[in-house]
Specification:
Elements: H1 9-19, E1 24-26, E2 33-35, H2 49-62, H3 74-87, H4 89-96, E3 101-103, E4 109-114, E5 122-128, E6 131-139, E7 143-147, E8 155-156, E9 166-171, E10 181-185, E11 205-208, E12 216-217, E13 236-241, E14 248-252, E15 256-260, E16 268-271, E17 280-284, E18 290-294, E19 308-312, E20 320-321, E21 334-339, E22 342-356, E23 359-370, E24 373-379, E25 403-406, E26 414-417, E27 421-424, H5 434-437, E28 438-440, E29 458-463, E30 471-475, E31 478-482, E32 498-499, E33 509-514, E34 522-527, E35 533-536, E36 547-548, E37 558-559, E38 563-568, E39 572-577, E40 590-592, E41 607-609, E42 617-621, E43 624-628, E44 640-647, E45 652-659, E46 668-674, E47 677-678, E48 681-682, E49 687-691, E50 701-702, E51 714-720, E52 723-731, E53 739-742, E54 750-751, E55 771-779, E56 782-789, E57 792-796, E58 807-809, E59 819-824, E60 831-835, E61 840-844, E62 862-863, E63 874-881, E64 885-893, E65 898-908, E66 911-918, E67 925-935, E68 943-951
Antiparallel strand pairs: 1-2, 3-66, 4-61, 5-6, 6-7, 7-8, 9-10, 10-11, 11-12, 13-14, 14-15, 15-16, 17-18, 18-19, 19-20, 21-22, 22-23, 23-24, 25-26, 26-27, 27-28, 29-30, 30-31, 31-32, 33-34, 34-35, 35-36, 37-38, 38-39, 39-40, 41-42, 42-43, 43-44, 45-46, 46-49, 47-48, 49-50, 51-52, 52-53, 53-54, ...
Length: 953
């Protein structure tokens, strides 16, 4: 995609402009006020439509309406909260419900489903110096991975509680120490799983002493708390280990250079000081000589250490400023590399802080050293490739993507990278021809197509020390490998790259879709920077590959009976036909079906296909709803109708849409979110609209509530597929009540965020997560509710108002990764969870009876006899509700004294319900259980029934 996305940095600008300046924190490290959001200069030189759209999308989704800003340290605070929630789960249960109650509904079993050939952004990559088949790589939000077969297979080596943001990995190169590895956590700029104020901050440096299989955080680097930015180890750009002394050197953003001489047990600052410089760089040669870079710093006009390039030949004890003459007076990020074959030669590549016509202003220097001093510095900046066209420029996207690497056996063979990857055989003494120099990123056709086997946005390139023609690269599409980096061709793409993403599961999804047919394993999702992968879910092997059937950032998707639909950012929707095997490929027919007159679409534009009439599509653009009743026709693009009477109020955007499956069909719910700002606060209650007979209707019913959070962002609406009157409304903002439940089509609502709704208070260091999505599933045991959040996946089968307990799911597989979207189906209860960093997970219930047809709703209330009876120590209690009801279930002893409150005034949907009563703490005897049910709608009257049960111990 052109203007290949300055990533997350623009979001920092928007938050900064809106909130009136950079956030500041008091740090405990050196007791200095520190700015996390980077320097002001150079951040907003280039703004394109795609960047702005993504930034606005995340900002609107996450901001606290009361302040119109994303709360400071949101990511760290929500992680601290979920950690507390898990550690104190027993006490939370005791707080919100009776501990003798446990649901018999089995939790879902979750398994990785792919896509196995789509990797996510990779900044960390290293080759074992003793074994070229052993590779370790790290995704910025996908964890640390290892391969022992040259990338044919990969294994995730993190434990669930560890930070999954990996920024750099390095091996101790000394003989006898090769089993020791280190990686840094936290990504300073770029992580689309985060947002300004919710930064994907690191938790320290991790060490392995068994070849990268088991990792533990170094206690000397672990932040004293995760809810503030105060440690140099929360954002690390690079780690190097001296091949001579074994000293560990760390380049820390905003702090400078630190050193450890005891294997990481302790660190000392040896160059720079906090807030003296933002960007830092580091390189080491085989003799142990060091180069360090310290950027310019606008926040501290009188730094203790001047900006520039520094050299040390005594293990970092002393440093000489060797900044070449002619070096820019202002500059930002620098990357550096020594020549392995000639350690007296080094290169530095520096971003000067500005970009014009997508060509970043860069400084490239060829340095030579003699007798521990700089001997010469040759400015080769003018030889950096500038091939023009759509994507042929050297564009670092405001410090986002930048690399330099030197071939181990030829100091003149140099790789440099930004959006594209370039090479030179003479150290860029001359500008290489396009046919030789352009070897990765976008295709050399210069038409925004992708270079085969290699992905735009370069972060790291590593030469194989055993065979210097072999090179690995890390980029926004994962990892790639070539067996001949020197290959030439008179035309086309000269270097042959092989994607090594097989089971390197680090892809970042926004959305996912599954087909409604029982057993159908097809999946179609929208991703950050990797389009819309189509693939078959495979939870038993890693051989299934995917096809990207769109481009750029993928959005909402739909897998229908006859057609599939995808979206590219800003609402460009395509219809895809299937081949004879039911698959979508690049070669099957694709038709643009976007409404031509629609405008003001948000970055990920909501649309929906009617599942009971797949010829109907509903599409949201700005405050407007469009309907197409012949979306599967030969002239679909001409069949759009603007429903002018169904619009959001002024200063509102339509942000969510869902369509019913059954009882009744053709019901559409739409969420509208305000954009109106008064002072520093969002002003305007969220709106929910219901459209009955939406296939023909031209008006809507307002189904909003005064209970909704003022200024809340409606990110999702879940509709019970067997009962269109039951919905969950999800608000994704931080610091709001996030989930609301209705059983009467939106006429009344109950807040059911429960233990996920821990809101920030004065002095509070934690609060609950951002809730992103929800789904409702009706099983033989009753109704299940799942929500995806910024800290993983949660489930409940008992909505009990503010006392609702949401239980963490798949903590050992999905963990705390962001779950952006959930898709489910009634036929076999399958759920697909789209994570932003770990691909797609599939959830199943092993003992659930598939529902091939809609559940037949019961006609009467019923309280069944408990089973078994007599019992010891537990028994199952079943009851049936013909309509949604407020339920109370109580146990009494033979004297009429209440001994257990199983359910108290909980709103439950119609259907069959089962729970387990555990009587461990009760004596043998006769007991009674009483059900009271108050219907929430309909003509049924209040129901009360009591039954006897016997406990025999």
């Amino acid at each position: 995609m052109n203007n290949h996305l300055r990533k997350f940095i623009l979001l920092l600008v928007i938050v900064t402009l809106i909130s009136g300046g950079l956030y500041l924190w008091n740090t405990s490290f050196l007791k200095i006020t520190h700015s996390e959001n980077g320097q002001k200069k150079g951040i907003s030189h280039y703004v394109d439509r795609d960047n702005q759209g993504r930034a606005e999308y995340y900002f609107r989704m996450l901001r606290d309406p009361a302040t119109n800003s994303i709360p400071v340290n949101s990511r760290a605070r929500e992680l601290a909260y979920v950690k507390q929630l898990l550690e104190n789960e027993r006490s939370h249960i005791q707080k919100f419900s009776n501990p003798t109650v446990a649901s018999v509904t089995n939790d879902y079993t979750w398994a990785q489903a792919g896509p196995y050939n789509v990797g996510g952004r990779t900044r960390a990559l290293a080759i074992d110096v003793t074994n070229s088949n052993h590779i370790i790589a790290g995704g910025v939000s996908g964890g640390i991975w290892s391969s022992t077969d040259n990338g044919k297979t990969w294994t995730l080596e993190n434990t669930p509680g560890q930070n999954l943001s990996v920024s750099y990995v390095v091996q101790d190169p000394r003989s006898g120490h090769s089993n020791t590895w280190y990686y840094s956590s936290g990504e300073y700029i770029g992580n689309t799983a985060s947002a300004a104020g919710a930064n994907y901050r690191g938790t320290g440096i991790y060490k392995s002493t068994n070849g990268g299989k088991i990792w533990n955080v170094l206690s000397s680097t672990e932040a004293s708390n995760y809810t503030s930015y105060h440690s140099p180890f929360q954002y690390v750009s690079k780690i190097v280990v001296s091949p001579v002394t074994g000293s560990i050197f760390v380049a820390s953003y905003n702090f400078g250079i630190l050193k450890s001489t005891d294997g990481g047990a302790s660190f000392n600052q040896i160059l720079g000081k906090m807030n003296d410089h933002v960007w830092t760089g580091l390189a080491i040669n085989k003799n142990g000589d060091l180069l360090a870079s310290l950027s310019a710093q606008v926040n501290n006009p009188s730094p203790s250490t001047k900006s520039g390039i520094y050299y040390s030949s005594n293990d970092g004890t002393t440093w000489n400023n060797i900044t070449p003459g002619g070096f820019p007076s202002y500059y930002e990020r620098t990357v550096m590399a020594f020549a392995p074959s000639k350690p007296s030669v080094a290169y530095t590549l520096t971003y000067d802080g500005s970009t014009s016509n997508e060509q970043s202003k860069m400084s490239l220097y060829f340095l030579t050293f003699k007798a521990d001093t700089l001997y010469s510095a040759v400015n080769r900046s003018s030889k950096i490739p500038e091939y023009g066209g759509k994507v042929g420029q050297f564009n670092v996207q405001n410090n986002y993507n930048l690399l330099i690497s030197v071939k181990p056996d030829d100091y003149n063979f140099v790789l440099i990278g930004a959006t594209n990857l370039f090479r030179s055989s003479n150290g860029f003494a001359t500008t290489p021809t396009q046919s030789f120099g352009w070897i990765g990123g976008y295709s050399t056709a210069n038409n925004i197509s992708q270079y085969p086997g290699q992905h735009p946005d370069q972060h790291i390139a590593v030469f194989d020390p055993q065979n210097p023609k072999h090179v690995w690269t890390g980029h926004d599409g994962g990892v790639s490998y070539t067996t001949d980096i020197t290959a030439t061709s008179t035309s086309g793409n000269p270097v042959v790259w092989i994607s090594k993403d097989n089971a390197y599961l680090t892809s970042q999804f926004y959305m996912i879709a599954i087909n409604k047919t029982n057993g159908d394993d097809r999946l179609l999702g929208g991703t950050q920077d990797n389009g819309s992968p189509f693939f078959h879910a495979d939870t038993t092997s890693t051989s299934t590959s995917s096809q990207d059937v769109s481009s750029g950032d993928g959005g909402f998707t739909y897998l229908g009976t006859n057609n599939a639909y995808t979206e590219t950012q800003n609402g460009v929707v395509s219809r895809h036909s299937y081949d004879g095997s039911g698959n979508i490929t690049h070669y099957t027919a694709t038709t643009d079906v976007t409404p031509g007159n629609a405008s003001n679409q948000i970055f990920i534009t909501p649309y929906a296909i009617d599942p009971s009439s797949e010829n109907i599509m509903y599409y949201l653009a700005g405050d407007s709803l469009w309907r197409n009743t012949q979306i599967d026709g030969s002239n679909a693009v001409s069949n759009w109708k603007l429903l002018s009477k169904i619009q959001g109020p002024a200063n509102y955007l339509l942000t969510s849409i869902k369509v019913s499956h059954n009882k009744p069909t053709h019901v559409v719910y739409i969420g509208a979110s305000t954009t109106n700002i008064v002072g520093r606060k969002l002003s305007g209650a969220p709106q929910i609209y219901r459209i009955n007979h939406a296939d023909t209707a031209t008006t809507a019913l307002n189904r909003s509530s005064t209970k909704f959070p003022d200024g809340g962002y409606v990110n999702d609406i879940a509709v019970n597929p067997q009962n269109a009157n039951e919905i969950l409304v999800v608000f994704s903002n931080y610091n709001v009540h996030s989930i609301f439940h209705s059983t009467d089509g939106g006429q009344t609502y109950t807040s059911v965020g429960g233990n996920l709704d821990s809101l920030s208070t004065s002095g509070s260091s934690t609060f609950g997560p951002s809730v992103r999505s929800a789904t409702i599933i009706q099983t033989k045991h009753g109704t299940l509710y799942l929500v995806g959040t910024s800290v993983g996946l949660f489930l409940t089968d008992n909505l009990n108002g503010s006392n609702t307990i949401w239980t963490k799911q798949a903590n050992n597989t999905i963990g705390n990764v962001v779950v952006d979207y959930l898709a489910s189906r009634s036929s076999d209860f399958r759920v697909a969870a789209a994570t932003h960093g770990r691909g797609i997970f599939i959830g199943t219930i092993s003992d659930a009876l598939p529902i091939e047809k809609p559940i037949q709703q019961p006609s009467n209330f019923k309280l069944a006899q408990n089973y078994p009876n007599p019992f010891n120590p537990s028994t199952n209690i079943s009851y049936t509700l013909p309509v949604s009801s407020k339920v109370t279930l109580t146990v009494y002893d033979i004297m009429g004294r209440k001994v257990a409150q199983l359910i108290s005034d909980a709103i439950q949907g119609s259907g069959n319900h089962v729970l387990t009563f555990k009587a461990d703490n009760l004596a043998s005897g006769t007991y009674f259980y009483r059900l009271e049910a108050v219907p929430q709608s309909g003509n049924a009257g209040q129901f009360t029934q009591t039954r006897k049960m016997i406990l025999l111990k």
